[in-house]
Amino acid sequence: MLSIRAGLLEAMLEQARRDHPLETCGIVAAPIGVRTAERLVPMDNAARSPTFFSFDPRQQLAVWRALDERDEECRVIYHSHTASVAYPSAEDVRYAGDASVHYVIVSTLAAVAECVRSFRIINNKVTEERICVVH
Amino acid sequence: MSIFVTVPTLLRTFTQDQKRIEVQGQTVLDVIEYMEKQYPGVKERLIGDGQVHRFVNIYVNDDDIRFVDNLATVLKAGDSLTILPAVAGG
Q: Which keywords does the record carry (chain A) (predicted)?
């Protein structure tokens, strides 16, 4: 189960709609040892593509250093799908190697009923999980 | 010549949970070979066919080695090498 602070899922969706039709991306940080993901860090999509995202390596280094300084960890990696449902693509699964991370996908496709979903991806196996919003 | 390596969560099972390790080497490849001797198995998680895996980023100080000399990037004493998973998807 993903435990996340209220308002952050809405902020991801807003970012995704703003960047549409390009994919958007970012992380949510959590203090080490704390259950709830607390701090949204929007990232640049270096690929600037409607079908692919990649963190800018330099920006990622700066963000990861800040996590270290703040005793936080990357708890969630999120990105948007702009023309498909909120479910990991084959490419998502290939890159998602971290069993400790929750992978959130938001869909900006208008017809999609569930536009924010969270997954664990372990050894190429995708498992959807419940999202618990903490107020 | 001492180099300090910041190890990502994913590789800490190899380094007995150490986040920062001190290693030796003149180039990034030397450092990886040195790490492999100390922590067997780590090399294949980082490189294959003489190249850094596309899902791994390696930085020397602030520079991504892909924009310097890749594995041949030369190091000097006190340099810091950071390994991070590349984050991407479709």
A: Hydrolase, Metal-binding, Metalloprotease, Protease, Zinc
Chains A and B: how many Cβ contacts under 8 Å?
Answer: 65
pLDDT of B27 > 90? The answer is yes
ipTM of this predicted complex?
0.93
Tokens 């067997």, located at residue: B40
pLDDT-derived band at B83 (thresholds 50, 70, 90) equals very high
Q: What is the pLDDT of residue A40?
A: 98
Q: At CA A57, angle to CA B15 and CA A28, rounded to 5? A: 75
pLDDT over 90 at A18, yes or no: yes
The answer to whether A55 contacts B59, with C-beta atoms less than 8 Å apart, is no
Phi, psi (5° rounding) for residue B2?
A: -85, 135
Q: What is the Cα–Cα distance from A17 to A42, expressed in whole angstroms?
A: 13
Please report residues of B whose CB lies closer than 8 A to that of A25.
Answer: 87
* Number of CB atoms found within 10 A of residue B27's CB: 17
CATH number reported for the structural domain that contains residue A54 in this entry? 3.40.140.10
Name the residue range of residue A37's domain.
2-134
